[in-house]
Amino acid sequence: MKLRRIGAPVNEGCDIHGSQLAISALQSKGMTFGTVVTVEKKTEREGEILHLNTLCDFLARLKQEVVETNDAGEFPLVFGGDHSLAIATIAALPNKNRGVLWIDAHGDCNTHLSSESKRIHGMPLAVAQGYGHPKLLEIVGNNTVDSDKILLVGIRSLDAKEEELMTSWGLTWITQEEIDMKGFEWTKDRVKSFLKTLDEIHLSFDCDSMDPALCPGVSTPVVGGLTPDQALELVELGFECVSVSSMDIVEFNPVHDQGKTAELIFRMDALVQKKVNGECA
Ligand SMILES: [Mn+2]
């Protein structure tokens, strides 16, 4: 299968300077994109969640791009940009039999009601399950994901209300503390047994799942985390255990990077390309 790189330099879901520059930073290092979907500023209502109209417009266009990529028989690999874009990637394909492997330091399961920051990049996984602001749910339509088909890995920063929501929805997550205590082999076994229950997944990789001491190019770093090699191993495991239908690599912030996160992104891109090409060979 052919891979199509879709650039999504969105920062309105995060509002910390930098991730809007991710695509041009990757292009300057030689990466090429099939398409780049850009943000067009819309008028915002006061008191609404941050940049809601701007993001809804952007996400609808990004979703359409992923739909067309899939219709063309190509594999959509979406580069962020902040994690709000996953709303569009996940919404693009029917999800009733599809799971999600979500590698992240954060839960991204806030709703507009629980969120303190009101930033949409903390909400995409809630929206994907059908919880959140009506305007965001409109983008998802019927393509929600069942909570019992989702596994989060690398979690080390949950808000109290967010954690309550995650528990009430029946979500499963592996914390970084568990990974550190029980080991990476244990982690891979857990991920593997989860993947084996599914036919197909969307893979969402947040760069802040990695230790910011090793990969500092992110907007919301949290102490500790995966090594770049472990991150690659988890992504590889995804492709080896189950059919991956789409993927995001998000939250790269070149302003804070010292070339290290970019280097990991290039390695991950090469790995995904190899897996996608091989799948139909
Ligand atoms: Mn995230």
Summary, kept brief:
The protein is α/β, with parallel strands linked by helices and about 280 residues long. The chain has helices at about 20-30, 50-70, 85-90, 125-130, 135-140, 160-170, 175-180, 185-195, 230-240, 260-280, and strands at about 1-10, 35, 75-80, 100-105, 150-155, 170-175, 200-205, 245-250.
- Work out the strand percent: 15-25%
Assigned CATH architecture: 3-Layer(aba) Sandwich
Largest sheet: 8 strands, parallel
- Poorly predicted segments: none
Radius of gyration: 17 Å
Please give a structural write-up.
It is a single chain. 38% of the residues lie in helices and 17% in strands. The protein contains ten helices and eight strands. It has helices at residues 22-28, 52-71, 86-91, 124-128, 134-140, 160-169, 176-182, 184-195, 228-241, 260-279; strands spanning 2-8, 35-36, 74-80, 98-103, 150-155, 172-175, 200-206, 243-250. It has 281 residues and is of the alpha/beta class. The protein has an eight-stranded parallel beta sheet with strand order 2-1-3-8-7-4-5-6, with helices on both faces. It is globular. The protein has a single domain, classed as Ureohydrolase domain (Arginase, Chain A), CATH 3.40.800. The mean pLDDT is 96. Bound molecules: manganese (II) ion.
